[in-house]
What we know:
Layout: E1 2-5, E2 27-32, E3 41-45, E4 53-55, E5 78-84, E6 92-93, H1 95-100, E7 113-117, H2 125-129, H3 132-135, E8 139-140, H4 142-154, E9 159-162, H5 175-180, H6 193-201, H7 218-224, E10 226-229, E11 241-248, E12 256-265
Parallel strand pairs: 5-7, 6-8, 7-9, 9-10
Antiparallel strand pairs: 1-12, 2-3, 4-10, 4-12, 5-11, 11-12
Helix pairs in contact: 4-7
Amino acid sequence: MSIVNLTLPLYPFMPVGNVWAWDSPFQRTPILTPESHGVSAHHITFHSETGTRLMLGACYDASSPRLHEMDYRAFVNRPTVVVDIPKGPGEEIEPGDIDATLAKDDEFLEGDAVLIRTGWGDDERYRTLGDAYASTSPHFSVAGAERLIEVMQAKRSDVMLTDCSYIGNLGHAHMFPEWSSREPWDRPPFPSPQARIYMRHYTPDRGAGGGAPDWAASVPLHGAMSPVAALANCGAIRAKRVRVTVLPLFLRGGEGAPCSVVAIED
């Protein structure tokens, strides 16, 4: 048996949780040190979607279950099929990608979780690319997300994991050109006054609503299943089938949270 850690490490100003106007980057500030007090303690701050994270339908639907209301049996030792859909910067996972892989995969069994591996999370690319790791990630098109839902629901599958940093669209209509494409010093993170002002103007027609939505592919996926995004090190998995455990921060009332993810190969 081998255990593969699929979790992005949390470190100051890591890219996933650092590029959008609502992000508050991971920071770890000493409170006590061995030199000053003989012991270490830190003040830690981060956004709810920092790094590898479990996201729930409650992100978009206030009536959906929250983290403390979930049945965690679905996330412990879950039989999982690994599906390779190689993608590069900014490329989309389309319906044809799903049809050519998962839809005809004989090893995709009833009730499986699905791990979609693009290769984006391998080779510590998150360190070498910096913020571009988040803002140029492969992602799902709207049609690709809808086709994935059809194929997974036919097998009663309700957990999808991926090494894409974000699920869909990457804010190309509004958030990226207006905010994330600017230099880091010109987009101070939340809760800066600039970020707060921008978010007041980031109305539903710009985000997940109508018009030219920034995150349209995310909405159907969150409604149909529990996505786990920003996996790392998936290339270390050698087996076609694994058992996956997802352990999120147990945040009462949370609609999602950073999590640790491990794959077990028998």
